[in-house]
Amino acid sequence: MSTTQTGNPFNVPVKYVKKIGPRRAEQLARLKIHTVHDLLYHFPREYMDRSRPVSPFDRADGEMITVLGRALNVQETSPRKKLTVTRAALECRRGIFYAVWFNQPHVKKTVKPGVELLLSGKLDRGYGAVQVQVHDYEVMSGEGTMLHTGRIVPVYPATSGITQRMLRTFVYEALGQWRESYREFLPGRLITAENLMPLPEALEQIHFPDNRARAEQARRRFIFEELFLFQLRLALLRKNFTRMKKNHRYVAGDQLRNRYLAGLGFKLTGAQQRVVGEIVSDMDSPYPMHRLLQGDVGSGKTVVAVLTLLRAVESGLQGAFMAPTEVLAEQHYLSLSGALESLGVRVGLLSGGMPGRERAAMLEDIVSGRLPIVVGTQALLQEDVIFQKLAVVVIDEQHRFGVRQRAILQEKGVRPDVLIMTATPIPRTLSMTVYGDLDVSVIDGLPPGRRPVRTYYVAPEELPRVYNFVAGQVKTGRQAYVVCPLVEESEKMDLQAAEELHRRLSERELRDCRVALLHGRMKSGEKDRVMREFRAGRIDVLVSTTVIEVGVDVPNATVMVIIDADRFGLAQLHQLRGRVGRGSEQSHCILAARLRSREAAERIKAMKASQDGFYLAERDLQIRGPGDMAGVKQSGLPEFKLADLVRDREIMQAARRRALELVESDPELGSGDNLPLKLYLRDMDRVKENYFHIC
Ligand code: ADP
Ligand code: MG
Fold first, then answer.
1. From CA 497, how far away is CA 485, in angstroms rounded?
2. pLDDT digits over 589-634, tens only?
3. Does 172 fall in a domain?
């Protein structure tokens, strides 16, 4: 056993592990392994059971087996260029069999006549002889630990140049050198209460388990650890955010609010009223609001946002409205300025592409307090944007804003009331645990008088019939969207496709309609013009790339045609469908697609079955299945190393409860029992500034 090192594994570069030189260290960096800690927390993705040697003579051709034998002779041949075959004859109690290695000439250095070998590989009984194509082997020397066979063997996420064999060896060396540096850092009470395998043991067992059950226990410990640390940070963040009193107060008075409501032409729903009540009582509290507003597409979140902002304006304070993209910021700007101009409330748009002089003027307006409401993207968080008296920040579509962005706000020295709005992406069952640091308000149900959108699936060949239907709807005075997907990798090609479709429809199928094109590459002024024309009813059919996804509100539009619907995720499809069904007329959503995969078919089926965004988000998770990381990214859920939000829901709930208890009883993590945890968090922070994120 190697001597034990005491350096902090978070700080020690991985090249200081025995057998890892600078070159290997570079390759390991591709696996995001930079430090000893990264290496030890590079967990196996699965295991192979090679613990029970069998006799090769009893097994069937093609089986994966582990066998034991003594080498009689070893030969190396080179039947053709770039192929070396090492073949050993081995003896066991039942007779003689053969082992072959391809292109591993170094094997002959250790596999010499007389040595005892444990082999794992594929049995090949093709030509009478019993032969094993070796995947891994171990020389039985009576000393040292077997890593590669003769046990339950870890299988790691790997990368080119780094083999499983190397990873096992590296991890084993690192364990030997640094295991002792890992004292348990979770509080003892927690370990007992949750029945967790303690740390040094768990590290060993997750990599080199004694048996399956122990591997499982180790794995559960790290899943809990991961989720607990996540929840603990959320809880601490919340504690920090909300425990300092804010330095603004709202005056009583609701002139602006009443005038705004009077101009709406509808009454707030019960759900909207309730939510506004929750927000107002947060705003009246001496501590900052930190609230998540969940409401399906079309549930009327914008009104709530405006009322929140107006409360600041009424008190002579400022409000900021952040959207995830420039396009959405523009759309919010349009609708806010449209609604508030007549009340004499100025709204500004701080966009990324602004000319320097305009930007400077706007910054001046913001810092002087003359501009009460500013709309923008994350650009609003930039250092040079200084508000005179920022009281409220409304963030649309939370899932694209990270904990980091929230922290920046705090660092600006302001403690605004924060309202975060989100439509579908987070299933109800997860939102409490994933956004554990936020109070949650839900607008359940849609404003009255909405009729469910009729949803159909068609094959691409049936599109002419669909366009006929669109033309018919236009004749009766309705409007329509035709959406074609814009995939990032080939924006240009997709643009051409959209242009082509626009031309064809205006010349042929929809030549009696006024058809316009809207796409992401258009200048924003141009986009605004098209949108205004559409809203005003001077355009009948809008052929568009997905720029209309969120925020567009044209109640007279009753048809949504989505081309290649299989290329969209469920959340996106639902968002798109939410553009229609906003008025009193019956609306229709037509999904045209070729169903190449089971997932695509399931998504279309779900769309036909339900209009409930929360249900669809849930279905999305199920269809996608655990472990689909690309899908998880899209959904805006945080990513974990081991934990799976669907499978490990219960562990997440337990972790959340424990984290809340802990922060409640010891918010500074200062007691002796909790100190190791505090130090561990500090270590993590130092190395990985953004260790976990919700982006
Ligand atoms: P979202 O929650 O998706 O942001 P919006 O705020 O865009 O939804 O609202 C969708 C539509 O519903 C808008 O046309 C809005 O004017 C309308 N709306 C909002 N609240 C009500 C209500 N209480 N009664 C009737 N219509 C409403
Ligand atoms: Mg909205």
1. 9
2. 999 999 888 888 999 999 999 988 878 877 887 776 554 444 444 4
3. no
Give the model confidence (pLDDT) of 154-190 as tens digits. 989 888 788 888 999 999 999 998 888 888 999 999 9
Domain of residue 227: give its range.
Answer: 183-243+655-695
Residue 11 placed within a domain: no
Contact 301 CB / ligand 1 (< 6 Å)? yes
Residue of the nearest CA to atom 9 in ligand 1? 300
For residue 571 the two structure tokens come to: 């959340």
Helix ranges, 179-211 (H): 188-193, 199-207
Q: Looking at the domain assignment, is residue 156 inside a domain?
A: no
**For ligand 1, is residue 266 a contact (CB within 6 Å)?**
yes
Atom number of ligand 1 nearest to Cα 396: 4
DSSP-based three-state secondary structure for 263 = helix
**CB of 537 closer than 6 angstroms to any ligand 1 atom:** no
Pocket-testing residue among 553, 577, 582, 585, ligand 1, by greatest number of atoms within 8 A of Cβ: 553
Q: Is 331 in the pocket of ligand 1 (CB under 6 A)?
A: no
112 falls within a domain: yes
Total tally of structural domains belonging to the chain: 4
Q: What 3-state DSSP class applies to 68?
A: strand
In the chain, count H helices and then E strands: 23, 20
Spatial distance between the Cα atoms of 519 and 498, rounded to a whole number of angstroms = 8
pTM: 0.66
Q: How far apart are CA 173 and CA 32, in angstroms?
A: 19
Residue among 275, 299, 332 to mutate when testing ligand 1 (max atoms within 8 A of CB):
299
Cα 378 to averaged position of ligand 2 atoms, centre (Å): 17
Indicate if ligand 1 lies below 6 Å from the C-beta of 272: yes
Collect all residues with Cβ–Cβ distance below 8 Å to 443 and sequence separation of at least 6. Answer: 269, 271, 272, 275, 293, 294, 295, 296, 299, 300, 301, 304
